[in-house]
Design goal:
- The chain is an alpha/beta fold.
- It has three domains: 3-103, no CATH class; 107-253, Rossmann fold; 267-385.
- It has 20 helices and eight strands.
- The strands form two sheets. It has a four-stranded parallel beta sheet with strand order 2-1-3-4, sandwiched between helices.
- The protein starts with a helix and ends in a 7-residue tail after the last helix.
Length: 392
């Protein structure tokens, strides 16, 4: 059954379908693979959801905590012959848990910090200070807005520099907000939808005030929430939204980002971020940029595209069960190593954060059998191949 057909079922019906399924998706679920507990398998969570819905089991801090053992990667939905979207079911129960004060302490703590700092990491002002050296690459009044995202701005400012250099190389004038705040997706994923709506409306107003026609971001979580969740939250950007891989591949097809004339013997493997691949159906653009434009040799991992393994970097997983998130990332890095690739490339700062530590610093060979090849963001790889990578 297609995903569209599955949407005819309400969430309670989807949970019941999942609860009586033979549970083959358990072998794809990254959380179940690491924790090896029946309760956290897709069917286990579905059975618990049905029991809570029927009043057979109360929604307590203990039962609510189970619904945070979900990476929201949607690989179970991809496999499911009935098209059940279990992350939507668990998302609804997280929202109920948040309303009733039953969310895990880690989720509540992260929510309080997000509402206070309006960022996952540094405050918007602090993050803006780190990016000040790239302000000369911006054009006030430009119709294209580059939205770095709070994770990239705080932890990976070098990716911002690489991306802005690519815009410059393609002849695209681009602007950035004076200060950026969190897009709101982590709050929504944790179950705090009303709080996420507040951040979303503030950010949407800032974008609208700039009169931008296109918003481009290298964070798939940001582009997804802009496209799909902001309308639900009552916030509208009033601009077309694209991930950097979509935008730059479009420039390549239009002749603005010229294909490199030389081939390279560097072999790379590409990790599909869940929020870019399964959530937004962007699979070809990053691969074409790496192979056709950058001239790199692309080696696919065993699980790729729609069935690609998760890195564990979803906000709820990393906050509520960090040990599980780290183990999921290590499994994915080991899969990358088995390809024999020289480099692991991804297109999401959260994936970079999870896969990078599993693969070492990136400056030398893997440190152990569980490690993978060095990890880089696709914007950095492209900027390096075009000879415009700024100094770190």
């Amino acid at each position: 059954m297609s995903e569209k057909a599955a949407k005819r079922f309400d969430l309670a019906t989807q949970a019941r379908i999942c609860a009586v399924c033979p549970n083959m998706c358990r072998f794809l679920c990254p959380v179940a693979a690491v924790e090896k507990i029946e309760t956290v398998t897709p069917r286990g969570k579905a059975q618990l959801a049905v029991a809570v819905e029927r009043g057979e089991i109360p929604l307590s801090p203990e039962t609510a905590g189970v619904f945070y053992h979900c990476a929201t990667c949607k690989v179970c939905r991809e496999w499911c012959p009935s098209g059940v979207d279990l992350p939507e079911v668990t998302g609804g129960l997280r929202r109920r848990a948040a309303r009733e004060g039953l969310a895990p302490v880690a989720a509540r703590t992260l929510t309080e910090r997000l509402l206070r700092d309006r960022s996952l990491y540094l405050s918007p002002v602090e993050a803006g200070g780190r990016l000040s050296r790239y302000r000369e690459l911006l054009t006030p009044g430009a119709k294209v807005l580059y939205f770095a995202g709070c994770s990239t701005a705080a932890l990976h400012p070098e990716i911002v520099g690489a991306t802005l250099r690519l815009f410059e190389a393609a002849g695209v004038k681009v602007a950035m907000l004076e200060t950026e705040q969190c897009c709101g997706l982590p709050l929504d994923v944790l179950g705090y939808r009303d709080e996420a709506a507040g951040l979303a409306r503030d950010l949407a107003e800032a974008v609208a005030a700039g009169g931008y026609e296109t918003v481009v971001s290298g964070c798939p979580m940001c582009t997804y929430v802009f496209k799909e969740i902001y309308p639900v939250l009552g916030a509208r950007l009033g601009a077309e939204v694209k991930h950097v891989t979509e935008f730059f591949f479009g420039l390549h097809e239009d002749g603005a980002l010229v294909k490199l004339g030389r081939k390279h013997d560097l072999a790379v493997t590409y990790h599909d971020p869940c929020y870019l691949g399964r959530y937004q159906d962007v699979f070809d653009a990053p691969r074409r940029l790496l192979s056709d434009v950058a001239g790199l040799r692309l080696l696919e991992m065993e699980s790729n595209r729609g069935l690609a393994a998760c890195c564990g970097g979803a906000p709820a997983t990393d906050a509520a069960v960090p040990g599980t998130a780290t183990a999921i990332g290590a499994r994915r890095a080991a899969e990358a190593r088995r390809t024999g690739a020289d480099l692991l490339v991804t297109a999401c700062p959260h994936c970079l954060d999870m896969l990078g530590p599993a693969a070492g610093s990136g400056d030398g060979p893997p440190a152990g059998p569980g490690d993978g090849p060095p990890v880089r963001d696709i914007s950095e790889v492209l900027a390096e191949r075009f000879g415009v990578l700024p100094r770190r």
